[in-house]
Design brief:
Length: 598
């Protein structure tokens, strides 16, 4: 994956690859800073601690002398020393420093599909309109049009970006997003992002239609698991290649693990080595040693690998739970190769290691460096039941997921932020929107999973506190004592157990509209999502909502000429064929192109 940056942007380039979505350097016109609407001036410097020196191999906890691993990034952020402008797509690694502004110009060169790009895990303080969730914070970008995203990196660590237009990211519209900053342990070499994903020879469009039908049974198996876009053919004797990454003997390496799958959860292990975890999603944690790590869809871990073993090649294995409760692949042994410098560059590892018994249970037991404590006396949760129904539509019986008894259906051509711009509070019930009361107060949510399958739950706009999770039904009156209110795990994706409960909390400190959804593509496409409207009255004064109108007007102008609209797919919820979308039996018209490896 490639990326390039300009300081400042002075050139223009356009690249059309893969899905024919491209990003280029440009010279966007920016509005003048405004003390009311904009963030603080970009060179306002508020030190986050005493001078501590520069970030280096023996001082990773310090950042540019004035900030450090204990700086509360929700209170103090370094100034934007740089503005990073992306100039290649799809898939470049976007790399910035803590406090930088990132400008991305997205050009939609596809013929018949819209798109939008979500910056996964980025808090978007005061800039919900940059979140990239079509039908929520913006309209899709129509073919032949472009949109500029401009956001502030108030956190640091490892994340990713992806299309939020239906399951489009399953066709390859993804890339790593790295924000350099302090770390809670020292290391010598940054190996960069390590993206892992399930891979399908069929397109995500066709697979979503297949996964929707009850008659087809379980969701489709992935055809392979890719490591940084590579792997051998899963069943043939030839084709493809293992990904190889080099370790320097005697050095400590930072590796940024990302699960960008549509469906498959992965449990990873490196034969003969442990992982020292220093961050969960975008939250720095006290260094914690693990021999294996479970990554639900959308989750990330920053880990340190100590290359202290004999010079050789070692298998990096990804194992899936065997009962198909959190994904299944046709590749019986998904793996990459970690190669010590000095070992054979072509030979395979000889030790497969101790077999790992994978489950669907997420990781627990991490302690954030920047602490958060919630007053237990204020615990008064709202319950959000999650369930699965099997209604019958024109195509037959389908899977329909719901939160709060509502399968979400967003409006591509009328996002929630446009309602706010227009002063319209007549929100349709189908968009499943909850207005959250209060400012700078803790809000508590019990997600009660009434079906056997687990879900990786992702919340936009917040790092939430995972107060607890377990099996069965949660009773707030009798089970609050099982929760952890004192600096629990904090992240933006958590694995909710099947037939169980999850209790989360977040502070209402970020005005905007924020989507919460399962990150399994088939589930959110079938309705598993909800929206939180936070501090509604403050939104118009914090961001330029009128800037969404040119793109929304372009989308509405495009709709009548689209061969696939009125919508079959709202972007989050796939409707039945024949419901004002493609005629029944015309699913083939979604223009898939078979993608194979090896």
């Amino acid at each position: 994956m490639l990326g390039c940056f300009s300081r400042p942007a002075t050139a223009c380039c356009a690249v059309a690859l893969a899905l024919l979505v491209s990003v280029s350097v440009a010279n966007p016109v920016h509005h003048a800073p405004n003390a009311v609407i904009d963030l603080l001036p970009r060179q306002t410097i508020t030190p986050g601690g005493r001078p501590c020196g520069q970030n280096n191999a023996t001082n990773r906890g310090c950042w540019k002398n004035s900030w450090n691993i204990s700086t509360d990034y929700e209170v103090t952020t370094p100034p934007a020393f740089n503005t990073r402008t992306v100039c290649q797509y799809p898939g470049p690694t976007i790399s910035a420093d803590w406090g930088d502004y990132v400008i991305v110009n997205v050009f939609n060169d596809m013929q018949d599909n819209g798109t939008s790009i979500h910056w996964h895990g980025i808090r978007q303080f005061g800039e919900s309109n940059q979140d990239g969730a079509n039908g929520v914070t913006e309209c899709p970008i129509p073919p032949g049009h472009n949109k500029t995203y401009d956001f502030h990196t108030t956190q640091y660590g490892t994340s990713w970006y992806h299309s939020h237009y239906s399951n489009q990211y399953g066709n390859g519209v993804v890339g790593p997003l790295i924000v350099n900053g302090p770390t809670s342990a020292n290391w010598d070499i940054d190996l960069g992002p390590y993206a892992m994903t399930d891979y399908y020879w069929e397109t995500a469009d066709r697979l979503t239609l297949r996964a929707e039908l009850v008659a087809n049974g379980a969701p489709p198996d992935s055809d392979n698991i890719l490591f940084r876009g590579k792997n051998v053919h899963p069943t043939a004797a030839t084709g493809g290649a293992y990904d190889r990454i080099t370790l320097t003997p005697g050095k400590k390496h930072l590796l940024r693990l990302i699960n960008t799958s549509v469906d498959n959860s992965l449990t990873v292990s490196l034969v003969g080595h442990n992982f020292t975890v220093i961050a969960t999603d975008l939250v720095a944690v006290t260094p914690t040693v693990r021999s294996t790590l479970f990554l639900g869809v959308g989750q990330r871990y920053d880990v340190i690998i100590d290359a202290s073993q004999p010079v050789a090649n070692y298998w990096f294995n990804a194992t899936l739970e065997s009962a198909n409760n959190c994904g299944k692949t046709r590749n019986p042994f998904p793996a990459a190769i970690f190669h010590y410098d000095g070992a054979s560059t072509t030979g395979l590892p000889t030790n497969r290691g101790t077999p790992v018994v994978a489950t669907c249970a997420g990781e627990t037991g991490f302690a954030p460096i920047v602490t958060r404590t919630v007053p237990a006396a204020s615990f008064a949760p709202s319950t959000l039941p999650i369930d699965l129904a099997f209604p019958t539509g024109p195509r037959g019986q389908v899977f329909e997921w719901s939160i709060r008894n509502t399968p979400i259906v967003v409006e591509w051509d009328h996002p929630v932020l446009e309602y706010i711009l227009q002063g319209n509070t007549s929100f349709p019930a189908a968009i499943n929107l909850v207005q959250v009361a209060g400012a700078n107060v803790w809000t508590f949510w019990v997600l009660q999973n009434d079906f056997v399958l687990p879900h990786p739950i992702h919340l936009h706009g917040h790092d939430f506190l995972v107060l607890g999770l377990g099996a069965g039904v949660f009773n707030a009156a009798t089970m609050a004592g099982q929760l952890n209110f004192n600096n629990p795990v904090r992240r933006d994706v958590v694995q909710m157990p099947g037939s169980g409960w999850l209790v989360i909390a977040y502070k209402t400190d970020n005005p905007g509209v924020w989507l919460m959804h399962c990150h399994i593509g088939w589930h959110v496409a079938s309705g598993l999502g909800i929206q939180f409207l936070e501090r509604k009255s403050e939104i118009p004064t914090l961001m330029h909502l009128d800037q969404m109108e040119p793109n929304c007007n372009a989308w509405r102008a495009y709709q009548p000429s689209s061969p696939y609209l009125p919508k079959l797919d709202s972007g989050l919820k796939r409707r039945f064929a024949g419901e004002g979308g493609l005629p029944v039996g015309a699913e083939w018209a979604l223009k898939p192109a078979v993608r194979r490896i090896g």
